[in-house]
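Example for tutorial group B:
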């Protein structure tokens, strides 16, 4: 048996997935040492950008045999465990909601691994993590955040179709970088993600109501 054979399976995109996980771990370590603040959120933003680059690169280059699994494993750290710990750091009584968030994030990512659709079924974990962590940094009421986390957790495992960012990925990366360096832009990011989260279910409900008339 040849040692370290696994490294022959790792592509550049896979290396970015590992970097994504390491950024998530760095943010989690920061939360344990201090608390969840804007520095931890910056690491979450960098992980989100790396995840976007990773996905784009994976789609445009040769497919890695472990790429999809590795990407979801990394995402479970950065966009599942990290926001769950951010909730607990903000208010310890939010532990049940953070548990639900982590469990449904993992379910969402596991389902993603067996899908091959143009768009997403269920809310992706990245915007969900950014949105909830943004609400925490804006110091929204803890129980309001808990209610929102229940809603977004359910949306993650729903069959509602969410569009991929696609050709707007570069714009999204620029916006994220601007927010990383200018904290005053955080409300803009949170409102933008809120629109992304709400539009598909509202459109679905409106369509059903219209068809039933």
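The residue assignment follows.
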């Amino acid at each position: 048996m040849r040692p370290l054979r696994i490294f022959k399976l790792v592509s550049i995109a896979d290396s970015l997935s590992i970097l994504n996980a390491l950024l998530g771990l760095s943010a989690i370590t920061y939360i344990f040492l201090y608390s969840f603040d804007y520095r931890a959120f910056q690491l979450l933003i960098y992980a989100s950008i790396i995840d976007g680059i990773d996905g784009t690169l994976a789609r445009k280059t040769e497919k890695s045999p472990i790429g999809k699994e590795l990407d979801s494993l990394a995402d479970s750290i950065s966009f599942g465990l990290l926001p769950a710990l951010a909730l607990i750091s903000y208010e310890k009584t939010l532990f049940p909601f953070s548990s639900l968030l982590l469990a449904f994030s993992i379910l969402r990512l596991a389902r993603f691994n067996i899908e091959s659709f143009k768009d997403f079924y269920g809310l992706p974990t990245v915007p969900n993590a950014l949105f909830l962590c943004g609400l925490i940094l804006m110091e929204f009421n803890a129980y309001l955040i808990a209610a929102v986390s229940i809603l977004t957790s359910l949306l993650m495992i729903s069959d509602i179709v969410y569009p991929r960012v696609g050709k707007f990925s570069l714009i999204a990366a620029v916006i994220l970088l601007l927010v990383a360096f200018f904290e005053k832009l955080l409300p803009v990011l949170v409102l933008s993600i809120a629109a992304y989260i709400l539009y598909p279910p509202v459109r679905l409900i409106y369509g059903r109501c219209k068809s039933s008339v």
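Residues 8-212 form a domain with the Four Helix Bundle (Hemerythrin (Met), subunit A) fold (CATH 1.20.120). Compare this with the pattern of hydrophobic and polar residues in the output above.
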